[in-house]
From TrEMBL:
Protein name per its UniProtKB record: Threonine synthase
InterPro entries assigned to the protein according to its UniProt record, in alphabetical order: DUF6503 (IPR045444)
Native source species: Jejuia pallidilutea
Pfam families: DUF6503
Length: 262
């Protein structure tokens, strides 16, 4: 009996050693380990426009604005935000350090190059520029316009971010499609102080470029009591190019005869 018990124990141990746990081959398994660093609502807006990952894969953006004075072509390096704006009579550039201006004749440039050099890029590259570093998000009161309700996400900036960290934006989106519909924004570049006055742009027409949904037309609205009232003007964007190819930094460098804007 004693010998039989020892034999049974040995057989049991042998069987346990030979019972191998099945090995799972994860070589072809696609595991989703992505965790968004953004709030859920704005993540859904990004996704509705093609996704932040697709946007981050791009190196440059070029677009043309149709203006009464002639076409205005803006070229931007998406990684360092250097830019070039070519207008019929002037060119504005930003090389990462200095904003510069050239004129093709004696016509004076009437705007402020330091205010303008990235302004239209910022409006055009919505909503993706709201994925930049140093941004704070919070839910805010929805916008109700012509019977339609648009949930809102308020955007603020940490101190020291950009030329105007006091700027605030409100992105309003369609609650069913999550596409961006409106942008409310303040202007603090000149005062350097927070403003309570919001301006409004309607984002209604979109075009698909390299898998991303970008504006075709922006419509500015008149406003009263921080609400849009009636249409003011349209601005159309054409010849839009998004590329994964990096631009030559030389195109943004200060050109001969240019004035560096202080």
């Amino acid at each position: 009996m004693k010998h039989l018990l020892i034999l049974v124990t040995i057989i049991s141990l042998f069987n346990c050693k030979n019972k191998s746990t099945p090995t799972v081959d994860y070589t072809d398994e696609q595991l989703d380990v992505t965790t968004s660093v953004y709030p859920e609502s704005i993540t859904k807006v990004f996704d509705a426009h093609g996704g932040v990952d697709t946007w981050n894969a791009m190196q440059s953006l070029v677009f043309t604005m149709k203006k009464p004075s002639g076409d205005e072509v803006t070229t931007t390096d998406l990684k360092n935000r250097t830019s070039l704006i070519e207008m019929p009579k002037h060119t504005i550039g930003f090389n990462g350090k200095d904003v510069w201006l050239t004129s093709k004749d004696t016509t004076a440039y009437k705007g402020n190059p330091k205010f303008y050099y990235n302004l239209m890029f910022y409006f055009y590259a919505m909503p993706f520029v709201l994925a930049d570093d140093g941004i704070m998000y919070e839910e805010t009161t929805p916008l109700v316009f012509e019977g339609q309700t648009y949930p809102g996400i308020k955007i603020g900036y940490e101190a020291g971010i950009g030329e105007s960290p006091e700027d605030e934006y409100i992105l309003y989106y369609n609650p069913e499609t999550y596409k961006m519909e409106w942008l409310g924004y303040t202007v603090t570049f000149f005062s350097k102080e927070k403003s309570k006055e919001f301006h409004f742009i309607k984002y209604s027409n979109w075009q698909t470029v390299n898998g991303l949904l970008l504006p075709e037309t922006l419509t500015w609205y008149k406003y009263e009591n921080n609400l849009p009232t009636e249409k003011r003007n349209d601005l159309k964007f054409t010849d839009v190019k998004l590329s994964k190819e990096k631009l030559d930094a030389f195109i943004f460098e200060i050109k001969e005869g240019a004035t560096v804007v202080e």
